[in-house]
Amino acid sequence: MIKVNGRDFPWEEGLTVTKLLEKKNYTFPSIVIKINDKTISEDQWEIMAIEDGDDVKAIHLITGG
Question: H helices within the chain, ranges in order?
Fold first, then answer.
């Protein structure tokens, strides 16, 4: 089990940031991902493995004027 934005989410072997975003249907154009309070750059999303017990935060950036 992992935490995603403070809520339990089932962990599975081979789960990456990209796969998690797909499973959660997070399609926002600007998003910041943190795993255990460490910011993960977008170029690492496809290869960064999420481990059982990790705390993931998906922060949606909203801009406007």
Answer: 17-23
